Amino acid sequence: MRRTRLITAATAAAALTTIGLVSAPGAGAAGSTGSSDTSRGRVLTTDVIAPYQMAATAKGAYVADGFTNTLSLLRKDGSLSVVATGTGSEIGGVDASPDGRSIAWLSTTFPSGPGESFSSSITIRTQGKKDVVANLGKYEKTMNPDRDVTYGIVKNGNPCAREALRGLTGGPATYKGLLDSHPYAVASWGDGWIVADAAGNDLLKVDAKGAISTLAVLPAQPITFTAEMAAAVGAPDCVVGVTYAFESVPTDVEVDYRGNLVVTTLPGGPESPALGARGSVWTLNPTSGALKRLATGFLGATNAAIGPDGVYVAELFAGRITKVDWSGRKSLFTKVANPLSLEVRGGTLYAGTLADIDMSTGQVDGPGSIRSYWIL
């Protein structure tokens, strides 16, 4: 389940490479993730770097920072206190139960050398009870939910195209779902939790006792190369007409007012507009399994929040937050630099932004932020 990544010089793609959401061999270009900020939001704190996901509660907002590997609570006075440190090399998503008595967060350890393997987990903490830790990485290695999904070249392949796309993606020209896990987002659902695994390309159910099962595997995302697409990624003419199925890369899962799930996905290929803005928002009926694409055309759909008037989507690489109504119609909510995560509570939208990171050195040159917007 290696996210197939075309090698480009897009600084935006390098931003996510640095914080571990995607792997983009050779994509890191010198530069910065910062951009102009024209938002109207009120800044609540700048003591964050990579706020992957938030969970707003009566106590305040829990913030999972993937760069500092911490789960913190942002209180109404703006103070930020550490609640937990990730059990792996990165802490990912976080959510809270509706009554606020339980929280869950995700951790991933990435391989750092030859022969090493990934590990990932979800920790469920309930007041008055011992923490429950479920081994998501072991489940992936045992079940590999997308093992039957074909990625890569699926139509009109030829030897030249296979060689070119192997070089551009750093992997096989065609392959089945591989073993990989990067749980990136979690949502409270009933008496359990739903986990979006960005590397597993799936949604997993975890009950209160830590038992794991597969809810859904997200579909592959095929594109057929045009001459313009080939030129944009530096591919030879022999790839024109080739259909290539990218991985789905789910980045968030939320529960709407009807009990359905709302899922955001990255395009699984370049996060630049080279192949078009292909991020999507999906709805999934968890009972019937019916999956529907609500909207597409997003540039880096890294997170979503359910508001009273639709779905708010963070477009990291477009520098904006977009509102999608339930018919799929999109409108600009606000422009903001590096929007990474969103959460709604009451009439307030909370947005977490990625810090200004120098891609040539990995140095943090400016802080991230948590800010709030009034949406009613």
From TrEMBL:
<dbReference type="InterPro" id="IPR048031">
    <property type="entry name" value="ScyD/ScyE-like"/>
</dbReference>
<protein>
    <recommendedName>
        <fullName>ScyD/ScyE family protein</fullName>
    </recommendedName>
</protein>
<keyword id="KW-0732">Signal</keyword>
<dbReference type="InterPro" id="IPR011045">
    <property type="entry name" value="N2O_reductase_N"/>
</dbReference>
<feature type="signal peptide">
    <location>
        <begin position="1"/>
        <end position="29"/>
    </location>
</feature>
<dbReference type="InterPro" id="IPR011042">
    <property type="entry name" value="6-blade_b-propeller_TolB-like"/>
</dbReference>
